[in-house]
């Protein structure tokens, strides 16, 4: 039970970033191998490498969506919200969370339908001959996980309703100080 709770906590905190790191490492390695293979005369080019890397990039995009929601890095115009009173900021934040959750849930619902249509079409990728439903499955995964992350963020915002929220400038300065501290710690 304790091991399962640790695993669930770790997945909650690191799932998306771990998957994105793995995908980016794979993309870098395959691209590097492809460059090397092209430069060595007696080796034949990898016909599947470009398609494979393209699919990995697509996967990283859909996995980054729930990550940006969880980290609260979605694009927004914070300066306008900073002009409002604290309670109004919190209410608008929760409304935005609900809209995010609704939109991601709706996209997840329709991506299931898209995935089902692609599965029944028996379409394959040209170079690797992968079933295309495998390529599109990450779309469903990304939107469902983004819906869950939007729900988590909304619950956090409701729980922290009475806490003072930092302005955009204060948050930027705090983030910069954290990054500077991390950079300083890395030099030692």
Looking at this protein, list some descriptive labels:
globular, 188 residues, mainly alpha, single chain, 0% strand
The computed structural class is: mainly alpha
Q: Describe the sheet with the most strands.
A: none
Report the total helices.
6
Q: Helical proportion? A: over 70%
Radius of gyration: 21 Å
Total count of strands: 0
Oligomeric form: single chain
Uncertain residue ranges:
none
Shape verdict = globular
How would you spell out the order of helices and strands? HHHHHH
What separation lies between the terminal Cα atoms? 38 Å
Instruction: Compute the average pLDDT.
Output: 90
How much strand content do the residues show? under 5%
Helices and strands in order:
Layout: H1 2-39, H2 49-70, H3 78-82, H4 86-121, H5 132-159, H6 168-187
Task: Provide a descriptive summary of the structure in words.
Helix content is 79%, strand content 0%. It is mostly helical and 188 residues long.
Question: Short description, anyone?
Answer:
With 188 residues, the protein is mainly α.
């Amino acid at each position: 039970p304790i091991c399962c709770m640790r695993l669930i906590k770790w997945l909650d905190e690191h799932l998306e970033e771990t998957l994105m790191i793995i995908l980016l490492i794979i993309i870098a390695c395959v691209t590097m191998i492809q460059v090397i293979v092209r430069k060595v005369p007696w080796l034949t080019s990898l016909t599947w490498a470009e398609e494979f890397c393209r699919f990995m990039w697509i996967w990283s995009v859909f996995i980054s969506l729930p990550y940006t929601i969880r980290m609260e890095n979605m694009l927004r115009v914070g300066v306008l919200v900073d002009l409002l009173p604290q309670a109004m900021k919190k209410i608008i934040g929760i409304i935005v969370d609900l809209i995010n959750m609704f939109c991601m849930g709706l996209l997840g619902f329709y991506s299931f339908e898209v995935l089902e249509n692609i599965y029944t079409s028996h379409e394959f990728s040209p170079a690797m001959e992968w079933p295309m439903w495998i390529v599109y499955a990450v779309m469903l995964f990304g939107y469902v996980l983004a819906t869950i992350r939007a729900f988590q963020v909304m619950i956090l915002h409701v729980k922290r309703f009475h806490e003072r929220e930092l302005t955009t400038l204060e948050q930027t300065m705090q983030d910069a100080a954290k990054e500077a501290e991390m950079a300083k710690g890395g030099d030692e």
